[in-house]
Design goal:
With 390 residues, the chain is α+β, with helices and mostly antiparallel strands. It is built from 12 helices and 14 strands. It is elongated and about 95 Å long. The chain starts with a helix and ends with a helix. It holds the Pfam family HSDR_N.
Length: 390
């Protein structure tokens, strides 16, 4: 492997130094393409391994066509190569290569090159039909040593079609995932902001206005997180350093979305996973409504528009059995709905809520609670009573 790496490195230097002098296709072949075939173990002077101007009179191909190079293993063609001049743009020449490839089932790889850039194709989408996009592109004029190392799997003595297809599939997925991640991180679209806000434990209803407000903050967070990761990777001690110090630093604690959240201003206010779940259920049943969580030392509330007096539900978890109350007086119809949902009641107005998911069984009561909170008349009367002289 070391010898192969040295030869590839020297070839990169060779392409950089003489490439501009390869003004014709034939010069490009002799100076840049054949040397690489030799590095890959395909001796260009051995006709059992390399055949130039290989006949391409295959079914479906134009009569008299010939592929520039056919590479052979064990007497069978395994790779076709189309050569172009050093200055040529490769974008418009793939259809010609695909005609040869599609008509020859034994061929695993098709390649097109101008000596400085090599594009490798296979048949991941449809068997024996060359893909429209390359699974590997190597630019020797840009010193892509890492990408060039993948060429070791093309070596004559290691040429295995299934291994190459596996590498092609991995490269294709890697490129697709990289492009998707780059787009998501640069754009921070709505879905990404919602996902990250949920993972961060933000207790807010993810309305369009909220997403628009936090989107620029999310972009700043992404930039800072990536910067911190790069800095950490550069300053992280190597395994040798850790071994020398005998003890490795403990790993950071794993993120636990179910862990309770402690109010930084009051350690007695602890928001539990059950309380967080109540907010999630409420926002699922009442999407796009401005619901906000409010926790206290005694109880947990889901508020409308963040107003303390307009609470839809209040939840008490510090009792022998957790209970929940709605803001509006319960009617007989409400009690019938609660009974049908198999939810036990404690007294005339409290619901026993051993599990927060029980709330999802009575969505109608949440609808009525929201309507109650939106009706200003319900609160004007309370305000008038508060203003009466004692």
């Amino acid at each position: 492997m070391n010898e192969f790496l040295q030869r590839v490195t020297k070839h990169i230097e060779h392409v950089t130094s003489v490439g501009e002098h390869c003004t014709t296709e034939e010069t490009t072949k002799q100076a840049l393409i054949l040397p690489l075939l030799d590095i890959l173990g395909f001796n260009p002077y051995d006709p059992t391994k390399v055949k130039a101007e290989h006949a391409a009179d295959f079914p479906g191909a134009k009569a008299g066509e010939r592929v520039d190079y056919a590479l052979f293993c064990n007497g069978k063609p395994v790779m076709f190569i189309e050569a172009k001049p050093f200055s040529s743009n490769l974008n418009n020449h793939c259809p010609q290569l695909s005609r040869y490839y599609n008509a020859t089932p034994d061929v695993t790889v098709g390649a097109i090159t101008n000596g400085r850039e090599w594009r490798f194709f296979t048949d991941l989408v449809n068997k024996n039909i060359m893909d429209s996009e390359p699974f590997l592109t190597v630019r020797f004029d840009q010193g892509q040593t890492e990408a060039a190392l993948q060429l070791n799997q093309f070596h004559h003595d290691k040429f295995q079609p299934e291994a190459l297809r596996a590498m092609a599939e991995e490269n294709t997925y890697l490129s697709a995932f990289k492009n998707a991640i780059t787009h998501i991180l640069s754009e921070c679209d709505t879905d990404f902001v919602k996902y990250m806000a949920a993972r961060a434990g933000i207790q807010r209803t993810f309305t369009a206005r909220f997403i628009e407000t936090v989107q620029p903050i999310m972009k700043q967070a992404v930039v800072k997180a990536i910067s911190d990761m790069v800095t950490t990777s550069l300053t992280k001690p190597s395994q040798a350093d850790i071994s020398a110090n005998e003890t490795a630093p403990p790993p950071p604690p794993a993120f636990d979305p179910d862990a309770p959240t402690i109010d930084p201003n009051n350690s007695k206010i602890v928001t539990t996973s059950a309380e967080k779940r109540l907010l999630e259920i409420s926002t699922d049943i009442l999407p796009n409504e401005p619901l906000v969580a409010k926790d206290t030392e005694s109880y947990f509330s889901v508020l409308y528009e963040g107003k303390a007096n307009r609470w839809l539900v209040r939840y008490w978890a510090n009792k022998k059995r957790p209970t929940l109350n709605f803001c509006m007086p319960l009617t007989e119809q409400h009690r019938l709905e609660i009974k049908r949902a198999k939810i036990e009641m404690m007294g005339s107005d409290s619901l026993v809520l051993d599990k927060p998911d029980l709330l999802s069984r009575i969505p109608g009561l949440l609808d009525d609670a929201l309507a109650f909170c939106k009706n200003d008349e319900n609160f004007k009367r309370a305000q008038a009573q508060d203003k009466q002289p004692e």
